[in-house]
Design a protein that fits this description.
179 residues; alpha/beta; 3-stranded antiparallel beta sheet; 9 strands; binds inosinic acid; binds magnesium ion
C-alpha cells in the first residue's frame, strides 16, 4: 500500500503551488527578453518543469535531457550518464537547467561542465529542492524552492526505485530500500 511507505508530508499541493508561482515570477523577471532555453532534467523534474513554465509569462523554449546517477538505489552510484541528450544546440542561448533536487551536487556539476562545453550565452539553475547541508554559493544555484533535511523524499516527480513520482505532494520516504 502506497501510504505505508510515507512517513511525513513535507510540502502539500498548496505549498508547492505557492512556491512554484513565486519561482516563476522571479525567473520571468530574470529572463525577460532573453528567450531562455529551459531544460528539464528527466525524469525527476518533469512535474516541476510543467508547473514552472506555466508560471513563467515570457517567451521561452523547452528541451529535455535525461541523466542517470542513482540507478534503482537511494544512494548515489557516483556515476552520471546521459540517457537522452538535448534535441537543440545550446550555443549562444540563455540556458536554465530545471532540477528536482540537488543532493551531493554530483549530477549538477557534471551537467554544468557538459553544457558549458557547448558555449551557451549563460547558464542558470533552478532546483525545487536542495539539502540544508548544501552551500548554494559553492554550487552557484540562484533559484531554489525548498531547503530540506537529510531524508529521502518522494513525490511531485521524485521517485524511490521509480515509484511514487505521481504523488501530488512531497513526502519523506520510509519504505524498504535496497541498501
Ligand atoms: P546528486 O547528484 O547527489 O546531487 O543527486 C541528484 C539526483 O539524485 C536528483 O536529480 C534525484 O534524481 C536523486 N535524488 C537525490 N536525493 C533524492 C531524494 O531524496 N529522493 C529522490 N531522488 C533523489
Ligand atoms: Mg531519481
Amino acid at each position: 500500500m502506497l501510504l505505508n511507505d510515507i512517513q511525513e508530508i513535507l510540502y502539500d499541493e498548496e505549498q508547492i503551488r505557492h512556491k512554484v508561482k513565486e519561482l516563476g515570477q522571479q525567473l520571468s523577471r530574470d529572463f525577460e527578453n532573453r528567450n531562455p532555453l529551459v531544460i528539464c532534467i528527466l525524469k525527476g523534474a518533469f512535474i516541476f518543469m510543467a508547473d514552472l513554465v506555466k508560471a513563467m509569462d515570457i517567451p521561452l523554449e523547452i528541451d529535455f535531457m535525461a541523466v542517470s546517477s542513482y540507478g534503482a538505489s537511494t544512494k548515489s552510484s557516483g556515476v552520471v550518464k546521459i540517457v537522452k541528450d538535448l534535441d537543440v544546440p545550446v550555443e549562444g542561448r540563455d540556458v536554465l537547467i530545471v532540477e528536482d533536487i540537488i543532493d551531493s551536487g554530483l549530477t549538477l556539476s557534471y551537467l554544468r561542465r557538459n553544457l558549458l562545453a557547448r558555449n551557451p550565452a549563460s547558464l542558470e539553475v533552478c532546483a525545487l529542492l536542495v539539502r540544508d547541508t548544501t552551500d548554494l554559493d559553492e554550487i552557484a544555484v540562484r533559484h531554489v524552492g525548498f531547503t530540506i533535511p537529510q531524508k529521502f523524499v518522494i513525490g511531485y516527480g521524485l521517485d524511490a526505485a521509480e515509484r511514487f513520482r505521481n504523488l501530488p505532494y512531497i513526502a519523506v520516504y520510509e519504505g524498504p530500500t535496497d541498501h
